[in-house]
# Entry
Amino acid sequence: MLKYFYQFILILTIFTILICIFFIPTNSNIKIIDYAENGELLWPSPGFYGINSYYGRRHAPTAGASTFHKGVDIAAPQGSEYVAVTNGTITFAGFLGGGGYTVTLTDENKENGEIKYSYCHSDPNLIVSVGQKVVKGQVIGKVGPKNVYGVVGNRYFDSNGNPTNGATTGPHLHFGMRVNNEYVNPLNYLKRK
Ligand SMILES: [Zn+2]
# Structure
């Protein structure tokens, strides 16, 4: 009986090792860096390259804004267009809490997993919808206003009590990037022209 138990443990161990070898990704960022260096990712806001707030730890600029900034704030004015940084599918288009009106582009074709790009504080008149396939460079939205009205459940307000487009102090493009649902610094992957 004990012999079978040891055999079972042995088989279980071998099986576990095989699972680890084939299914746990290692160094998942390496290929993505290559991907950006190959010039495959476009800058999201053509013509606007200034950064108002970098990725990482910071003082929250407004109530409800994160003290760990999970993206970069690009100094693009209200109404300026932003583009798909790569080919992909729109997986979110709507109001999303602190992000305000948000468009999320997903590139699911990467060998190392799924990459998501989010464009926050957008114009409420969204021009893409969930499930839509878009191509690199395609205009997928515009930078929105500071204030938006009529959003049910919006918890964000400015100092005058007017509802805001998520946790924001003024028009800009917040651009976030997730690799397998982990936030990464977009500036490690995007090239400013
Ligand atoms: Zn931001």
